[in-house]
Structures are given as structure tokens and as C-alpha cells.
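Project standup — Tuesday

K.O.: blocked on the structure for the chain from last sprint. Re-posting the sequence here as requested.
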Amino acid sequence: MASLDQDLGPVLDKDGVRLTVDDAIATVTLTNPAKRNAQSPALWRALAQAGRSLPGSVRVVVLRAEGKSFSAGLDRQAFTPEGFDGEPSFIDLARGSDAELDAAIAEYQEGFTWWRRSDVVSVAAVQGHAIGAGFQLALACDLRVVADDVQFAMRETSLGLVPDLTGTHPLVGLVGYARALEICATGRFVGAEEAERIGLANLAVPVDQVDAAVRDLSGALLAAPRDAVIETKALLRGAQERTYEEQRGAERAAQARRLRDLAGVGD
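H.V.: unblocked you, prediction finished:
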């Protein structure tokens, strides 16, 4: 894929993650194609740091990856007795207390939680394999543009684990409980055509057109006033938890704020 990054110098470049910012668009790039962008606790911390490092000017965040694979998932070194240098191995974590294990997983999840915050719209550009943690990272974003060679799979269950990097909630929201269960329990691959058909992907295009499609989508997202997009995103994000009547009330309150703002009238 041709780079979406601008030659402005990275805001962050560490542990397989690079963040660049060009005015209203930030790009977070996974930068370890030699290992198919396999993930580690250090990478998850770098992703969380990228979220904390976004300037207030950013409205759209693009997530992309170098190489032929978006992310092959968790680096299998995590399951070895020695684990990663300077990190407790997963075996060591399993021997800790419930509170220690919960805190460790919660820290890992922080790299996946900020992508849906209300003040930005996040777009994942996904090519090749997006397996396990890679699938969940793509699911962490608001929108997904996929290449025609994409292969999603949730392999955690096949390894005797569960998806724990925040992917289960958006997956059920996108495809429904029964389809989500089938995808997770079987660990099968979901290709581009099916991903678009069942709602995992907003758009599927040839691999050499992904960057152009993401640029077009980013431009369209920037066309509307920022505050209107923020209010609309918040409305849609909360719709699943609200009743119909509660959602009606939320719409009224949001519209009242927008009308007052446009009219220059304070609350």
C-alpha cells in the first residue's frame, strides 16, 4: 500500500507504532511488516500513547499497517516461558492474583479503547491478514475500508482463550450475536466480500485502491461541521443502550444544543 503518512515527522515512533499528524487527519501506522505486525504489550502501550498524543485539531484518525498483512495477531512469543524482554510472560501473569491479572488485561485494552471517542472518527485501512488481536484492533475503529485480499479471523477460542481486547462488543453490534458466535467459535476466515455484506466492512476495494478510498472517505468526514459530527456520533453510539423514547429525548437535547450554538445563544 502506498503511504498515507505525510512528510511532517512523526509525533510518535516506537514499539512498532508510528503516529503522524497532518492538520485534521492523524495516521497511526503499524510498522513491523517483517513480523506481519504481530502485537505485544509494548505495542499496545504505544497505541494507547498515540491516542493520548493526538492534537486537538485532529478530527479523523486513520489506522493502517505496513506490508502485506494488517496484523497477524498476538506475537506467539507471549506464550513462551521467557515472554518478551522486560515484560512478565503470560505464564507469569496467570500465576498472579486475580486483581493483578485483571489490571494487566485492562492496561492492554487501553490501546483499543480510544478509537471510538466522540471527538474523532477512526477509519481502519485493512489489507491481508487481520487475525485475533489484529481483528480486534480493526473492530476498535468506527469504520473499516478493506482490501479485496483481507482475511479476518478471531482465533482466540481455537487457542483456548477468549477475545479480550474489546472486540466482542463491536463485533456483536455489527453482525449480531449468532454470527459473532459462529465467527469466534469456529475461528474461520471472513473475506472481503462477506465482510462487506455482513457489515464488518464499510467498503471493500482492490488492494491498490485502499489508500485512495480512505482519503476520499476522510475528506467526506471532514466536510460536515465538527460539532455536528461529534453530536451525531454520540447519538448513534448510545442508541443501543437507550430505549426508543430515551433516544428521542437524546435527539431533542442534541438538536437543541446545535440550534443554540448555530444561533449564538448560550445555554
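K.O.: great, moving the ticket to review. The radius of gyration is 19 Å. The chain is about 40% helix and 15% strand.
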